[in-house]
Amino acid sequence: MNAALAAADAGASALVVDRFQSLGGQLVKQTHKFFGWTTRGAGARGFELAQNWEANVKNHPRIQTLLGFEVIGAYRDGTWIAADLEDLHKIKPKRVVIATGASERMITFENNDYPGVYGAGAVQTLMNVYGVLPGEKYLIVGSGNVGVIVAYQLLQAQARVEAVIDVLPRLGGAYWVHAAKIQRAGVPILLKRTITGVYGTDSVERAETVGVDDNFQPVPGTEITFSVDVVLLAVGLTPLNELLFELGVKEYYIPELGGFVPWHDESGRTSQPEIFVAGDVAGIEEATTAALQGRISGLQSALDLGYAASKEEIEELKELLCQFRQSSLSEKVLQGLERLHAKGV
Amino acid sequence: MRRITVHPILSFPPKKKVKFTFEGQVIEGLEGEPIAAALVADGIYKMRESINLHRPRGFFCAIGNCSSCLMVVDGTPNVRTCITPLKEGMKVEVQKDKGVLR
Fold first, then answer.
1. Rg of the Cα trace of chain B?
2. Together in a domain, A64 and A185
3. What is the domain-level CATH number for residue A159?
4. Which of A20, A26, A257 minimizes the C-alpha distance to A123?
5. Is pTM beyond 0.95 here?
6. pLDDT tens track for A118-136
């Protein structure tokens, strides 16, 4: 939405295609307040940010939306196809910003395909968008930002969270303020512990965990069984990069950024000059940086096409992005970006 | 039913109730919510079976990405029920194979 708004404000026409029926991606389920600068949306809750941008997108005379449509093809002559089950559209854009986001990672343990094992974001969607709780008692695997925030949101929805576990000896990427909140509410965060299996008849009824040593090996005698019907996996995200692979955009494996990520410059431009990336698909980060990246790529693509986008604003936004990444939580991202840029196009 | 009624931040405005069938049994959901959300709210977890070993599979990603919730809806197989809006009278069935072209 930010890319479309920036490009359209500069005078370009933009089309937003999304396979969901609503705009806003994963922001629509974020009920916590964002950190950062109030001028850039901090202090607002994620779904409020999404609502504001959505209103701007829908009211913009030069932005069209195609919701419930999925991009199913991109051809060498620059034709893109977006389709739903009944209809399809051929689109010939001059510039494309890919902001497909990320999907949740899986880890291996016995019966990890059982109903009752959910991606943490999926439960967030169910409870915060649709008002549905998928079970009674919850175990959360992963103490990163997502795991800890979802634990807190489950408590707000009056669910019972038995524990948050993490294989690492320290808290994952969560903000301390959120971790402290759930601990105050009585949810233990058990470090150096992993899940070994879930069991039940046709769906999760209990989860078995074990403590691990410094080499991540299970320590006999430290097993704890949790009687839960939902296990949430909050073990990281990986870019949704299928379209980029199909397009043949240059990608590199950068673990710090979540897996295979497209090479891109500071404005989000990939190895194919007419294709930009923004948000998690460019490397796993978070919503504030995604919005900044979106705006930068929108302005830069409008500038490419000769529209009067402000070069000063682009520079200003790049500077803001650098400033935001000064936080210790961005250390890994910066290392990843450095490795990515060192690779060259 | 596992509907959230009280929440410190969110409000869930009342939506129209619709009836649909799951494996022939009539159940109720809210119009426009994903089919899979309506099933989960009703305590139904198994949405499909794995193709070879016929292991139970349920809701996993909620973004139409993982294929875990593919079901047969109104005779059409491979419907991603986590992103497909529920409508009155839908016939929803557990998918047990790859689905066939009609």
1. 14
2. no
3. 3.50.50.60
4. A26
5. no
6. 999 999 999 999 999 999 9
Both A229 and A112 in one domain: the answer is: yes
* Nearest residue on chain A to B47, alpha-carbon basis: A115
Domain ranges, ordered by start, for chain B: 17-94
Q: Tell me which of A67, A105, A132, A235 to substitute to probe the interface with B (most B C-beta atoms closer than 10 Å).
A: A132
* Helix axis angle, A145-156 to A176-184, nearest 10°: 40
Other C-beta atoms closer than 10 Å to the C-beta of A255 total 11
User: Token pair 């890919």 is at which residue?
Assistant: A98
Tens-digit pLDDT profile for residues B50-80:
999 999 999 999 999 999 999 999 999 999 9
The answer to whether residues A83 and A200 belong to one domain is no
pLDDT tens digit sequence for A201-255: 999 999 999 999 999 999 999 999 999 999 999 999 999 999 999 899 999 999 9
Q: Is the domain of A145 the same as that of A218?
A: yes
The CA–CA distances, whole Å, from A299 to A38, A78, A92, A151, B75 equal 22, 21, 19, 37, 46
Q: Which fold has domain B17-94?
A: Ubiquitin-like (UB roll) (3.10.20)
Chain A residues inside the 8 Å CB shell of B61: 103-104, 119, 121-122
Query: Residue B95 pLDDT more than 90?
Result: yes
Please write the tens of the pLDDT for every residue from A167-201.
999 987 777 888 999 999 999 999 999 999 999 99
A80 Cβ neighbours under 8 A, 6+ residues apart: A71, A73, A74, A90, A91, A92, A93, A96
Could you tell me the residue range of the domain that residue A215 belongs to?
106-235
- Of A171, A201, A235, the position where a domain reaches its end is A235
Number of structural domains found in chain A: 2
Closest-CA residue to A236 (of A149, A325, A144): A144
10 Å Cβ neighbour count for A188? 12
The answer for B 52-91 residues in CB contact with A (under 8 A) is: 55-66, 68, 82-83, 85
Residues A53 and A126 in one domain: no
